[in-house]
């Protein structure tokens, strides 16, 4: 594994115990210029994980607590009249940062959710006809609670499609939970974290990630996976070209993290569920027959000739 990346993962692991795979996925999204949706139970460490990432790369950190009364201007910013200068001045919102935690994103209205679409896709924000570029890197890590439905608004497909991955952290094993008790009972380990990388380091590494080689055979695997979702009898909405592109970019970053300058089929196998599962919509009759998205995607992968 790349030494700098290994140090970054180890640093985050000082406060997130026993979740190496999940940490690697988040670093993969960071290097692939993607965003991530964390859907999990309260109290498993979603917010701590995002804080640890921001502190480990010495970046600006912003947090938005999504509520039903949140307005788009609360995210992007607003122009306020300055009487001394006799003109309007734009006050930047919390979206102008490097690492943005969108906490409980499904608790606000679709109108407010959509204010993040341009930022996530194009790295910019347009307010009152003026376009403002966001900092580089820019990454959104959104959280949502899967068990609470009252007072929530399901994320529309267009919003879900902007996230490179959707994943869960899950409950810790017994040994990891013991470490949590010992480390978090009297202090906050986040305060002890020191930056492992600078933003310049991240920019340079992303340039190296772009050089990772992807063979035509790997491209055919990605296209085959996407195409089979579009023609599957249990699937109502298959993978879009954006989904294929994000898997392509994620596989390059994942290969780089593992010390290779080329992608192998195993990279695709380890990533495709996290990249594809939230983009697929099953037909109602499939759900009635207790068919789930993960099972369908696994069957599609097993039928590919690799």
Automatic annotation (TrEMBL):
Molecular functions per Gene Ontology: ATP binding; ATP hydrolysis activity
Transmembrane segments: none
Chain ranges of the ATPase AAA-3 domain: 35-165
Record has ATP-binding as a keyword: yes
Keywords noted in UniProt: ATP-binding, Nucleotide-binding
CDD domains membership: AAA
InterPro entries, sorted: ATPase_AAA-3, CbbQ/NirQ/NorQ/GpvN, ChlI/MoxR_AAA_lid, P-loop_NTPase
Pfam families: AAA_3 (PF07726), AAA_lid_2 (PF17863)
ChlI/MoxR AAA lid domain segment(s): 228-300
Claim: Transit peptide is one of the keywords in the record: no
Listed PANTHER family: METHANOL DEHYDROGENASE REGULATOR, MOXR FAMILY PROTEIN
Family per record: Belongs to the MoxR family.
Identification of the protein by name: MoxR family ATPase
Organism: Anaeromonas frigoriresistens
């Amino acid at each position: 594994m790349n030494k700098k990346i290994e140090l970054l993962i180890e640093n985050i692991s000082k406060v997130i115990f026993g979740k190496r795979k999940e940490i690697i996925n988040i670093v993969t999204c960071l290097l692939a210029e993607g965003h991530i949706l964390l859907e999990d139970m309260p109290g498993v460490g979603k917010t701590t994980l995002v804080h640890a990432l921001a502190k480990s790369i010495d970046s600006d950190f912003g947090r938005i607590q999504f509520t039903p009364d949140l307005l788009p201007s609360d995210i992007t910013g607003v122009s306020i009249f300055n009487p001394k200068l006799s003109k309007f001045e734009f006050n930047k919102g919390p979206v102008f940062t490097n690492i943005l935690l969108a906490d409980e994103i499904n608790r606000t209205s679709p109108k407010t959710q959509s204010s993040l679409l341009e930022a996530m896709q194009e790295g910019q924000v347009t307010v009152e006809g003026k376009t403002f570029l966001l900092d580089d890197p820019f990454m959104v890590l959104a959280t949502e609670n899967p068990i609470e439905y009252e007072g929530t608004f399901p994320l529309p497909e267009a919003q879900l499609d902007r996230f490179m991955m959707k994943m869960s952290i899950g409950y810790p094993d017994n040994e990891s939970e013991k470490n949590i008790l010992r480390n978090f009972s009297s202090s906050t380990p986040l305060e002890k974290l020191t930056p492992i990388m600078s933003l310049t380091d991240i920019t340079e590494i992303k340039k190296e990630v772009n050089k990772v080689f992807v063979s035509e055979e790997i491209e055919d695997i990605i296209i085959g996976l996407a195409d089979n979702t579009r023609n599957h009898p249990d699937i109502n909405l298959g993978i879009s070209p954006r989904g294929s592109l994000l898997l392509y970019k994620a596989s390059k970053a994942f290969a780089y993290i593992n010390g290779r300058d080329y992608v192998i089929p195993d990279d695709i196998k380890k990533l495709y569920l996290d990249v594809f599962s939230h983009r697929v919509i099953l037909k109602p009759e499939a759900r009635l027959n207790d068919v789930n998205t993960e099972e369908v995607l696994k069957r599609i992968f097993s039928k590919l000739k690799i």
